[in-house]
Amino acid sequence: MRTIWDIIKAPVITEKALIAKEATRDGRQLLTFRVDRRATKPEIKEAVERIFNVKVDRVRTVNYQGKVVRRYRTEGRRPAWKKAYVTLKAGEKPIEYGEEI
């Protein structure tokens, strides 16, 4: 049995994700998280609502395939991962992370 902490792994803190988070549309904030690859949209929605105590409007997910990398003669592979875009409902309190960067 997975817990909410197993589903949400970490926030994605990139320039694109922070710009999307600051540019609220109709009073709704867009958050980006790295999540477990087996997590479903309802599980992600429930986990974010319970962790941050907010109401989620919708969840979109993207699966990333691991890339092949080479170091000299050795070839390896980066792991595949899943990203979730979580849109909060209008009027919810903003969630703060990544402002120190």
Overall form: globular
State the low-pLDDT regions, or none: none
Query: For the largest beta sheet, what order do the strands appear in spatially?
Result: 1-2-6-3
Rg estimate, integer Å: 15 Å
Q: Structural class of the helix and strand makeup?
A: alpha+beta
The overall strand count is 6
Describe the 3D structure:
This protein has helices spanning 4-7, 15-22, 41-52, and strands at 8-11, 30-35, 56-64, 68-71, 74-77, 81-88. It is of the alpha+beta class. The radius of gyration is 15 Å and the shape is globular. A hairpin with a 2-residue loop joins strand 4 and strand 5 (74-77). The strands form two sheets. The chain has a four-stranded antiparallel β-sheet with strand order 1-2-6-3, sandwiched between helices. The protein has a two-stranded antiparallel sheet with strand order 4-5. It is built from three helices and six strands.
Topology:
Elements: H1 4-7, E1 8-11, H2 15-22, E2 30-35, H3 41-52, E3 56-64, E4 68-71, E5 74-77, E6 81-88
Antiparallel strand pairs: 1-2, 2-6, 3-6, 4-5
Key terms for this structure?
single chain; 3 helices; 6 strands; 35% strand; globular
Brief rundown of the structure:
It is built from 3 helices and 6 strands; from the N terminus they run H-E-H-E-H-E-E-E-E. It has 101 residues and is α+β, with helices and mostly antiparallel strands.
